[in-house]
Amino acid sequence: MLLRVSLMQSERCIANAALSIYDHIVILVDTLIFAAGVFVWTLLEYVIHGVLGHTHRTFVSGLHEVHHRDPRAVFALGSWLPVAVVIGSASWIFGAAPGVIFLGGVAAGFAGYEFVHYRIHFSKPSCALEERLRARHLAHHFREPDAIFGVTSRLWDVVFGTEPEAARMRELANAGAAVAPLAGRSNFGRVIRGGAIAG
What we know:
This protein is an all-alpha fold. The protein has one domain (2-192). The protein is built from eight helices and no strands. Helix 1 crosses helix 4, helix 3 runs antiparallel to helix 4 (98-122) and helix 5 crosses helix 7 (166-177).
């Protein structure tokens, strides 16, 4: 009897260990899928901003021109509802499928971009990375509107050749760093109160 109880406990322990290993693998895979979604967002950000907002005349161009005229229009609020509908619908239909986790990563990248973009325009940098991102983006706004399209990453500017040469980039970054943060409200409050949507 004691031997049988001991064997049952051993089997349970082995089953729990196997389940634990499986759970850890699933969590790792899901984390990698989510991270891939965040990474893909950086490319989407570059395409939306650089290609659709600047290089070609598209539906994004007019919205983005508003932001260049008035940098307080930092939030792409018109995009939040469609993103929420897609993510919510996909979650409801498919649950935590890999595609839904990937879309969640893309949406998290978008949310991170919105946060960083707001801070670039309205806040003093809190760290060296934020200082570099701010200087680059403000150099794009005020000195080089046909280059430096990455807001949260310079990767795609380097890959696609829209990153100025190093000496020129240092000059532009210094000019961008000299721009004071904006005072006042962003377009978020205006939209909440019924104003225009811009991005």
